[in-house]
Design goal:
Helix content of chain A: 10-25%
Order of helices and strands of chain A: EHEEEEHEEHEE
Number of strands of chain A: 9
Organism (chains A, B): Streptomyces caelestis
Oligomer: homodimer
Distance between the termini of chain A: 18 Å
Pfam families (chains A, B): Pyridox_ox_2
Number of domains of chain A: 1
CATH class of chain A: Mainly Beta
Structural class of chain A: alpha+beta
Number of helices of chain A: 3
CATH superfamily of chain A: Electron Transport, Fmn-binding Protein, Chain A
InterPro entries (chains A, B): Pyridox_Oxase-rel, Split_barrel_FMN-bd
Protein name (chains A, B): Pyridoxamine 5'-phosphate oxidase
CATH architecture of chain A: Roll
Largest sheet of chain A: 9 strands, antiparallel
Radius of gyration of chain A: 16 Å
CATH topology of chain A: Pnp Oxidase, Chain A
Strand content of chain A: 35-45%
Chain lengths: ~150, ~150
């Protein structure tokens, strides 16, 4: 559980449990051939998929619909040099099924500033990785989550 | 300053001032053709470049040296639906000049867990963008930082 680099690898369920406890993560995608990243509020669906709610026709929707994206959440205590980081990687898609849209309107994330026409974006949790670092000795170089090789 | 979407766009100097006040950001890059993101502690250089310190030969170094990356920092108050997000986009490179390495060993970031051989990675601040959102009405859909189009 505690390899030499000081990290503890987190299992899928532990990753999802930690993610579920924070309101905001960051979606990572490609925009005009450049890496892009945006903080967004989110909820996890029962199967671990990341659910976002945003304006239909937004730049975010155009950039991520149909693309493989990463979604990261973390909680780091800089004073103690401890914390965790979880990344969900998978295909993102706008929810088009009307019944599913209705379900998410009841149970999905709530926009912090609702707009007239909103869509839900679902990021499938195909790959869920995470690491925990514990006080001081646990960071690998500058990075909280990189594996050496 | 406050367009209809509720955001206040931040100028370059304001972005860098905000970034300088947080210890940890997230580097966004491509790894095995997939979007990847890692929290890292960092410092800003005088010209706004993002400085990281990590183990030589790490996976992070291999992935970002010579590539264009994004580096994001934010501070979000989920209860008040307010906060800011800044993204620096530019080419990343390992610092190879010995004099520059010595300078950064004195003034650059300190590893939270030093390793035997470390390098500095510099992300040039070619593009610096940021937005501030202020209490409730300021979020654009789910996203703190996406521009509509």
């Amino acid at each position: 559980m505690y390899p030499d680099d000081g990290f503890r690898e987190l299992g899928r369920q532990e990753c999802l449990r930690l993610m579920a406890g924070v309101p905001v993560g960051r979606i990572v995608f490609t925009r005009r051939a450049l890496p892009a990243v945006l903080p967004v509020n989110f909820r996890l669906d029962a199967d671990g998929a990341v659910l976002l709610r945003t304006a239909a026709g937004s730049e975010l929707v155009r950039a991520v619909d149909g693309a493989v994206v990463a979604f990261e959440a973390d909680d780091v205590d800089a004073a103690r040099h401890s914390g965790w980081s979880v990344v969900v990687t998978g295909p993102a898609a706008v929810v088009t099924d009307p019944a599913e849209h209705r379900r998410l309107a009841r149970t999905g994330p709530v926009s912090w500033a609702p707009s007239a026409r909103e869509v839900f974006v679902r990021v499938e949790a195909e790959l869920v990785t995470g690491r925990e670092l514990v006080g001081g000795r646990s960071l690998y170089g500058a990075s909280l989550a990189v594996a050496d090789g």
